[in-house]
Amino acid sequence: MRDISTKYGESAGKIWVTLNDKGCLRQEEIIITTKINEEDFHIAVGWLARENKISRENEDCFKLDNTNLENEIGSHAGKIWKILDIWGDVDFKTIKRLSGLNDSHVNAAIGWLARENKIFVNEKNRYNLK
Fold first, then answer.
1. 10, 39, 66, 102 - which has most CB atoms within 10 Å?
2. How many CB atoms lie within 10 A of CB 12?
3. Pick the CATH number of 1-130 from 1.10.10.10, 3.10.129.10, 3.40.50.720, 2.40.50.140
4. Which residues, including other chains, have CB under 8 Å from residue 120's CB and lie 6 or more apart?
């Protein structure tokens, strides 16, 4: 079992510090400033949304505020939790196929579930419920 909480939490922290310093930024600006990849960006947004710390304005600007992403990311997290509950050991591609979500939505939901300490990644890079 890999400790994903540390990695995901560090990415969320980088985004939080950046938004705290610079205010509302687009995804691309956050990725460049924090030097994290797009996957980690979406995971961190899910993490911060679960903490009620990030919101999105005008579909392209993220800022620190009470989240307005709870319905979107929370419902996607619920779908993924259900898939893991039924299927158990599942890789990213299978989660994506079974949920019907795109990469960014799956990653944000994984970040949400990781913040809740509900999932882990095993040595075969497959997701499981804790």
1. 39
2. 27
3. 1.10.10.10
4. 1, 2, 3, 4, 127, 128, 130
